[in-house]
Amino acid sequence: MEDHNSASNPTSMYDQSVDPALQKKRQAMIDRLSNRHQARVRSKESDSSPSFESTDTFLARFSDLQQSIVSEIDKIEQAPESFAKGDLDNVSALINDLEKLLAENTYHLPSYDVRASLKTISDLRESLDKVAVKLVPKKKFSFKTKAAKQNQKAIVEEQPEVVVSGDKSCIVFDTPGFKNREREVLVENLKGKDMGEFTLSDLGSCEVRLIGRSRAVFIHRVRNCKVYAGPALGSVLIDDVEGCVFVLASHQIRIHNARKCDFYLRVRSHPIIEDSSEVRFAPYCLQYDGIEEDLRESRLDEETGSWANVDDFKWLRAVQSPNWSVLPEHERISSLHVSISDS
């Protein structure tokens, strides 16, 4: 039985015996990644601020890290016989660093550069996913398409699910959560728990209340639901939703295949939508006992206004995307108070 870390990361499930020469090549790659990571750490420690002084400075740093990632992906793809446990994990960590770099500088960059950088990150993740699918044994994956019946099991025990949507793939892990439920009020009290990722999958006409903090939230195949959630320390990833109201707080929120949904958000970076239509945005309005402390500890206590600066990956023109709009004030929920006891 796999341990938690290997079960939640398909790219770290493959290992093989190699001769000393191949082992030496693999170690050299790991050393390069380790040295690059240490250089980034020293650079961060020397900066007095996480933000850069100019767009040119940011773009240069972004480009350098991008080229390093492309180089490492190419090396893995060109020498699959020397593929080792942890190689893809290290490249994935570099992409995460690139994404964090962009998030820290979003407020200071022109919108075109933000959109272009987001597209670059998306392409890198797609390239890494393709390499992982080639190298990791296929039995570790369970493939499902958008056309899959809703009554199919969303997650197989001990196996991640690769959900293919359009030209994208999103890996959903076997995490705690609410799955395959209809017409229920679903409440989870996260306070006092060391909660990692939380999944909402295959829900219909439900009301979901997540009170407290989580590390990340995955939302997939949800119809006509209301989802009210406290802050997530990392990301909220949403795919294939329709007719829903979401009240969410997170450092990053990515939305794929959403239709006729309203999003009330507190987010540090620009929300990202893709293959979505008739989605509307408004500021976060959730209230529950202790939410101010939860937001403060998650570094989401400040309203930045980013909820209204949505980036549409499929709309790169200078004018605003027609796929999203700001929810008119007279239609907004001004304040929403939830608790565990009134469920």
TrEMBL record:
InterPro entries: C-CAP_CF_C-like, CAP/MinC_C, CARP_motif, TBCC, TBCC_N, TBCC_N_sf, Tubulin-bd_cofactor_C_dom. GO terms for biological process: post-chaperonin tubulin folding pathway; tubulin complex assembly. GO terms for cellular component: cytoplasm. Residues 1-15 have a biased composition (Polar residues). It holds the Pfam family TBCC_N. Keywords: Acetylation, Chaperone, Cytoplasm. It comes from the Eukaryota. One of its GO terms (molecular function) is tubulin binding. Residues 160-315 form the C-CAP/cofactor C-like domain. Belongs to the TBCC family. This is C-CAP/cofactor C-like domain-containing protein. It comes from Chenopodium quinoa.
